[in-house]
């Protein structure tokens, strides 16, 4: 894959970049799945030179970010044309509509409608799986992965949700990546067992350089999720 020299994360001791100087900046965090959605979109569209990646250390974030850039104090956020916008699902659509590079939504109205349906489902998907960590995980998380398996049957002109790689895949992949690692490691649950379409989807998405270079460190992830979700048990 492409080995990119990634910029160092900015923390509370870091100076701000020259804000609102006409540079387009994607404020991000290397471990955040929401930010990862926008990072993948930027990479896939070939906007590495046009959109500067500004990673933040969320555990020790710079005060100027909330004060001068994004009052919500979250990532991702995009500084573009003198304003800042946030929310990852809005941002992947914004990047697709407002910048060059290959389109990540097909022209076909049926596919566009299904994309919207799937993107709307992501919050439910994530909530279902995260909540399952505290209960009967396999039983509670199963239906969410079945939903993806079924969705992958809708268009058979390629291995992705709409056939070809699109915003619908980008919306899910950072979370599927993390869930696959964590469920396998902690609960010995293989999300691809009995789900051949999902297995193929993961395999194919892992061939995409734009995604590969954004993947999270599995060991760090497991430690982080254990501390966050299992500490109370």
Automatic annotation (TrEMBL):
Belongs to the GST superfamily. Lambda family. This is glutathione transferase. It catalyses: RX + glutathione = an S-substituted glutathione + a halide anion + H(+). One of its GO terms (molecular function) is glutathione transferase activity. It is an enzyme of class 2 (transferase). PROSITE patterns: GST_NTER (PS50404). It comes from Carya illinoinensis. Keywords: Detoxification. Signal peptide: none annotated. Residues 22-103 form the GST N-terminal domain. InterPro entries: Glutathione_S-Trfase, Glutathione_S-Trfase_N, GSTL1/2/3. Its EC number is 2.5.1.18. One of its GO terms (biological process) is response to toxic substance.
């Amino acid at each position: 894959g492409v080995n990119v020299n990634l910029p160092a994360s900015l923390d509370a001791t870091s100076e701000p970049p020259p804000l609102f100087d006409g540079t387009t900046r994607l404020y991000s965090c290397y471990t955040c799945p929401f930010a990862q959605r926008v990072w993948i979109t930027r990479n896939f569209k070939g906007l590495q030179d046009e959109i500067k990646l500004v990673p933040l250390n969320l555990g020790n974030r710079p005060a100027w970010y909330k004060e001068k850039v994004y009052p919500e104090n979250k990532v991702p956020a995009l500084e573009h044309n003198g304003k800042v916008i946030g929310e990852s699902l809005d941002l992947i659509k914004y990047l697709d509509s407002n910048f060059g590079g290959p389109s990540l939504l097909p022209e076909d109205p049926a596919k566009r409608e299904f994309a919207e349906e799937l993107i709307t489902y992501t919050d439910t998907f994530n909530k279902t799986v995260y909540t399952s960590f505290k209960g009967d995980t396999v039983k509670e998380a199963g239906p969410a992965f079945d939903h993806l398996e079924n969705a992958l049957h809708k268009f058979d002109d390629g291995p992705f949700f709409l056939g070809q790689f699109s915003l619908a895949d980008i919306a899910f992949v950072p979370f599927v990546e993390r869930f696959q690692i964590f469920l396998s490691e902690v609960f010995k649950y293989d999300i691809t067992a009995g789900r051949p379409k999902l297995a193929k989807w993961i395999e194919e998405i892992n061939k995409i350089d734009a995604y590969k270079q954004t993947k999270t460190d599995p060991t760090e992830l497991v430690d982080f999720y254990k501390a966050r979700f299992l500490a109370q048990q």
